[in-house]
Amino acid sequence: MFDFLIVLNREVIMKNLKFVLMMALIVATVINNSAQTQPTTQTQAPTQTQAPATGAGVIRPPKYPSEIYTKEHASNRRAIPYPYLREADVMWSKRVWRVIDLKEKINYPLYYPNAPIADRKSLFDVLKERGLRDGTISCFNPIDDEFRIEFTRSELEALLSKSDTSMADDPNNPGGAQIQAITKNDVTSAEITKYWIKEDWFFDKQRSVLDVRIIGLLPVVAKKNEGGGDAGGDKPLFWVYFPEIRPALATQDVYMRHNDAERRTLDDIFFKRMFSSYVIKETNVYDRYISEYTSGINALFESERVKDDIFKFEHDLWHF
């Protein structure tokens, strides 16, 4: 009896399977025929060939790659996140303001190239591009380093681009009377002489480390007189909130003098403290800069004293 039922079930299953396969074959045939007989409604527009631009100064995309391999590491990098910090874990902190002098050779990766090239840009070109063209970073008035007075797009354009008028020959009337010509002078990377940074040094007792976080960055140019020469002194441009610009810096390569394959980024320069600087201010009861109470070689000694105090604080925490 059981053998009969098993044979009967097998026959029913085989019949159902044959029916399903036959229906699937019919549906596939119908779909294939309808796809072949469907009229094509899209027409390709005739391609237009444009003559290549000729003449001096025309920049076109490269015909051939300039590298033997595709550099994908830096362009896909992300900024290394800071460790989480609680207020209860900060047992000591000090805020200092520093100056990065771009005339020092160790700081050249922040200054060069003066004009963007295929795989590198200067720090100022990155800030200018993201602040003016993309609008992805906020720029603040240099008179306040607390990031409370933000520049609008028009104010930033007026700050970084100056229009001058001068007398020039009329191109429509050669040899005739001169006319006023308006020339637009943009602030370029070559004009940046220094960077100011505002940073906090702190001791994290949770991790037992003395750490530092950069809070703000400010590019500085030399003051110019009306004749175009140096008038002496510095002219701060704008403050940027450093954690906001880290994602942009993490994707920009910098030059490494000993190995072109070791492509570090602008964010690595700051994260690994690969720059030279001197202190111009520390938190104090008067809220004054070092230059306000001393000058000359004494100002340099005072700057070194601030650095030495931070070093000694960490050193004295441990017994050797």
What would your notes on this structure say?
The protein has 320 residues and is an alpha+beta fold. The protein has a domain at 76-160 and 190-315. It has helices at 2-37, 108-111, 123-134, 153-160, 242-249, 266-271, 297-315; strands spanning 90-101, 139-140, 161-169, 178-186, 192-204, 209-224, 230-236, 239-241, 278-282. The N and C termini lie far apart (92 Å).
Quaternary class: single chain
Gap from first CA to last CA: 92 Å
Average pLDDT confidence is 83
Number of strands: 9
Key phrases:
single chain; 320 residues; alpha+beta; seven-stranded antiparallel beta sheet; 24% strand; flat; disordered N terminus
SSE order and pairing:
Layout lengths: L1 H36 L52 E12 L6 H4 L11 H12 L4 E2 L12 H8 E9 L8 E9 L5 E13 L4 E16 L5 E7 L2 E3 H8 L16 H6 L6 E5 L14 H19 L5
Antiparallel strand pairs: 1-5, 1-9, 2-8, 3-4, 5-6, 6-7, 6-8
In short:
This protein has 320 residues and is of the alpha+beta class. It has helices at 2-37, 108-111, 123-134, 153-160, 242-249, 266-271, 297-315, and strands spanning 90-101, 139-140, 161-169, 178-186, 192-204, 209-224, 230-236, 239-241, 278-282.
